[in-house]
Amino acid sequence: MVREEDALVIAARDVAVPVAPAGPADGCTEDLPRLMALPGLIGTRVLFGRRQEIFGADEEARSIYRVISGAVRDVTVLTDGRRQVSAFHLAGDVFGLTAGPRHSHSAEAVVETVAMVYPRRPIEDAARRDARLACTLWLAALRQLEQGQDHVLLLGRRSAVERVAAFLSEIEQRSVGSGWFVLPMTRRDIADYLGLTIETVSRAVTRLEAEGALLRAGAKRIRLRHAPLRHLMGD
Amino acid sequence: MVREEDALVIAARDVAVPVAPAGPADGCTEDLPRLMALPGLIGTRVLFGRRQEIFGADEEARSIYRVISGAVRDVTVLTDGRRQVSAFHLAGDVFGLTAGPRHSHSAEAVVETVAMVYPRRPIEDAARRDARLACTLWLAALRQLEQGQDHVLLLGRRSAVERVAAFLSEIEQRSVGSGWFVLPMTRRDIADYLGLTIETVSRAVTRLEAEGALLRAGAKRIRLRHAPLRHLMGD
DNA sequence: CGGTGTCTTGAACACAGTCAATCGGAGTGG
DNA sequence: CCACTCCGATTGACTGTGTTCAAGACACCG
Fold first, then answer.
1. Distance of CA B99 to the CA centre of its chain
2. A99: which of A52, A221, B148, B150 lies 20 to 30 Å off by Cα?
3. Can you give the residue ranges of the HTH crp-type domain (chains A, B) (predicted)?
């Protein structure tokens, strides 16, 4: 089994893998807002109207964005009209990061939204010189990566009711206050985020209400009851 | 609509957003292997047996990995046994990156696998000093982020046959040669990656074969016929 | 107070899941 | 070399969750 080319390989079961005595390991600054205010990184506050496109798919990625207020959706549309929302960005979130020269999806304001817009080139130039900034951008990307993995788990292995329950929990946590909160997006956005139809989302919300897992005031004003909600979330 | 606190905000439709004249924009070095060979970053070649766990969920993230040969799966298991594979890593891929101190999922060798293992702390220390390394790690994370978004689109808005067709295309592209290639993973892994059951994966492959979109030699040895395959992929 | 867009509800259907039996291929031992 | 075993893959019949198509309720705004 051990061929010559593997001669220097250590079998994982035979030896303890050499490791650093890891501590909290968050050496990078988490304070992206302040870093982005560094000299030379001049951002612009921009107001986007409801449903306004912020950038389009295949468009050159010239800017990086941070939400001040409002909500933004990342959208991919297939040629036959099927639509997928891959992420929502709320106040404080950074979006528009991409490895390549072009965006792979579009971003649209869900409601009237104010965002800081930073030109990409100067940011990347600065990141190439300032390791702290680069490290911070790395963390921002990793955090989005982990959100994406949660999303994959949601879409791959959860029922409709579980998806809607998890979605509402997520939005509640990312909204400011506790108690009542407002869904900025329509049922269509939610459905396209959860890989469902608007009818199924509607039925799931109705069912959650019937089971006592939430209270409603209109379609978008919601208050969760966490104890019964957890019961319906599976894990 | 424009309140006082928005006074300094520029409406996106009124002015051209100031942008840098963006070029190819890939200032960061893409050559992660060579960067990881920098002085001070001492990796270890480690051999993992088939199905061996490389790291577990909730385990401290002490290392970063790069696949030399073989294949690795990222796995999340819910308490009720439902299983989701969030990614496969093939030769050349970096994995084990995480923002927090702990892994959110486990990683397992799909087949006998050799990987380079780099201790995390020294890498992050170096990244905090060397902006090029930080920038490169940033790109690695962004690339995984984009793969995650493709995965979300797959799970959210594609039929079973489309998912399997897209999956086979993806593996073919990431494998070395052209023509025939080998699936290192079982039907269970594929099903858990695509959010399907093994029976549905099996039926989809059978159907793709019947429609002339692929040839089979055993369950894992495959050759794709791209023209008919595209037809069945929707977009 | 009407009009329009969004949301909810209902009934029929379809796609993928479940349960169960069979097939196939790699490895093992006689 | 063949028979046996085991695990994974395939196929079939039936079920169920979520979709589709269609109608109606609600709320927001002129």
1. 16
2. A52
3. 158-228
Nearest to A222 by CA among A173, A188, A189: A173
Q: Distance between CA atoms of B49 and B1, rounded to whole angstroms? A: 63
Spatial separation of the C-alpha atoms in residues A168 and A173, rounded to whole Å:
9
The answer to whether A213 touches A229, Cβ cutoff 8 Å, is: yes
Which residue, A89, A92, A58, is CA-closest to A76? A58
Burial class (CB in 10 A: 0-12, 13-18, 19+), A84: buried
Tally Cβ neighbours within 10 Å of residue A95: 21
> Which pair of structure tokens corresponds to residue B162?
């489309």
Instruction: Encode B115-143: b = buried (16+ Cβ within 10 Å), e = exposed.
Output: bbbbbbbebbebbbebbbbbbbbbbbbbb
Helix, coil or strand: residue B125: helix
User: Closest partner residue to A139 among B99, B145, B149, by Cβ?
Assistant: B99
Q: Do A157 and B78 form a contact (C-beta atoms < 8 A)? A: yes
| Residue A60 buriedness (CB in 10 A; 0-12 / 13-18 / 19+) | middle
Domains, chain A, in order of start with CATH, read: 32-144 (2.60.120.10), 158-231 (1.10.10.10)
Q: Which of B27, B128, B145 sits opposite A144 (nearest CB)?
A: B145
pLDDT tens by residue, B112-165: 999 999 999 988 888 888 777 877 888 888 999 999 999 999 999 999 999 999
Kindly identify which residue of chain B lies nearest to residue A193, measuring between CA atoms: B156
Say which DSSP state A98 is in: -
